[in-house]
Amino acid sequence: MAYxxxxxxxxDIWKQMNYTPPRGPCQHKSSLVSPGCPCLRFMLNPTKASxxxxxxxxxxxxxxxxxxxxxxxxxxxxxxxxxxxDNQANQANQANQANQHQRQRQRLRIAIGEVGEPTNPHQGRxxxxxxxxxxxxxxxxx
Length: 142
Prior knowledge:
The protein has a two-stranded antiparallel sheet with strand order 1-2. It has 2 helices and 2 strands. By secondary structure, it is mainly α. Helices cover 33% and strands 7% of the residues. The chain has helices at 13-16, 70-112; strands spanning 126-130, 137-141.
C-alpha cells in the first residue's frame, strides 16, 4: 500500500520532524576551490513548504543552510528597538494630548461659568472706596 502526501492537508514535514527552517546563507560548495553558493537566505515557498526541504532560491537541501542569520537578527533587533521607542513616544504623546484636552475642557467650563469661578477675573472683587463726605471706607462693587 503506497501512501501519497497531499499538500495542504494538515501534513507538514517540518512540524513532523520537529525541524526549524533555516534562515541563513547556503554553505554548499561543489569543491574546495570553487566559490560557495550565492544564496543568502533559505527561501521556502508556502505552497511547497509542507512537502519539501529544498531551498527555492538555490535548490539545495535545507541542511546546507545556516540556521541563524546574524545580519538579519541585527536588523530585526534595530526594528524592535525603534518600534519600542516609537511606542513609548506615542504613549507619551497620547498622555500629553489627554492632559491638554482636560485643561481645555476645564478652561471652557470656567469660561461658561459651570465651575462657579467668575468669567471675568475682576468680577466679584470689592474695592475699598473712600467717600468724600465722611471719609469712611465703605465697600462698594467696582
